[in-house]
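agent> fetching stored inputs for the dinuclear copper ion docking request
agent> found them:
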Amino acid sequence: MRSRRPLFWVVLLSVIATAIGIVVALLIDWFPSQASTAATDIDTLYDVLLIVSVPIFVLVMAVAIYSVWAFRVRPGDTRDGAPIHGNTKLEIIWVTIPFIIVAVLAGYGWVVLDDIEAKKADEMVVEVTGQQFAWSFVYPELEGLQTNELVLPVDRPVHFKINTEDVIHDFWVPDFRLKSDAVPGITTTVRVTPSRIGAYPVVCAELCGIGHSTMRQTVRVVPAADFDSWVERQRASRVDGGVDDAGGDPIAAGRQLFNDTGCNACHVLADAGANGAAGPSLDDLAAVAERLGRPEGLTPAEYVENSIVDPNAIVVEGYQPDIMPTDYGDRLTPAQLQTLVDYLLEVGGGGNGQ
Ligand code: CUA
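agent> prediction call returned; pasting tokens
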């Protein structure tokens, strides 16, 4: 730079970099779909934070780069730098301005959060329980309906009450912009109003053990009428069986139950598209049942059922006990358990003569 006014160029380049940085930051699609009423407010909040952050970043980098260039040591110059006592006026400025910026942003964030967390009329409570490595859900207002699948009616405010059976998990639905830790011993709460029909991932966002990365399920947001009929079907399946949900096809019913129950998070099963690694593969389940169950006097069906309700009784070589939850005997109805056992043996090598 041959200009005698380098500061002019530093300021000009900084302004250009700021403008480009803001445009790029706003053009990047940071978030998934906006599936709750909170999403637009939160996304706007993030946009404001980005817009404020870019000029601060550019200012800091410009001062740093300019200083490195302007005050670099010249060849042959071995003098020490000039002793500096400080600059009180400058220090007051660079403490006061950031304080004001942070205070304003904190206030803005508080207003947005307070609005999102305000109690809504006609809330539906859903109790969420985290467990290595699956989520389960209870609808207290629907006679305590307990499910392994999260289904919500669109446009109805939901008040989640979150617990854990074991370690800390983190209940996260990115499309809702909703996230809360599940902490042993306390109940955390979070409110959300789903505003867009669709299926969205439910993710565990806290490292919780070997199956953490597979602790993913799906929330389905459906029209109110569909929700009511889903509730009816869930209640019916409590009584008779899990097969009716899939038009009477036992394979489809078993596959859906397998995925809804979260088995897919920890096991490989080609038929269900599951590739969890925390537990043994179930693709050759019939052979394993023969090998491990027969010596104990169990038929393949008895072995599979036993392995679901009492997973620590017989543990496949190379896997550890106490990984799989031990309460599937309570969570599944006898009919659902039967559907699952039949399905697993059918697709696990037992249904085609092997
Ligand atoms: Cu549960 Cu990570």
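agent> quick read of the result: The mean pLDDT is 88.
agent> awaiting further instructions
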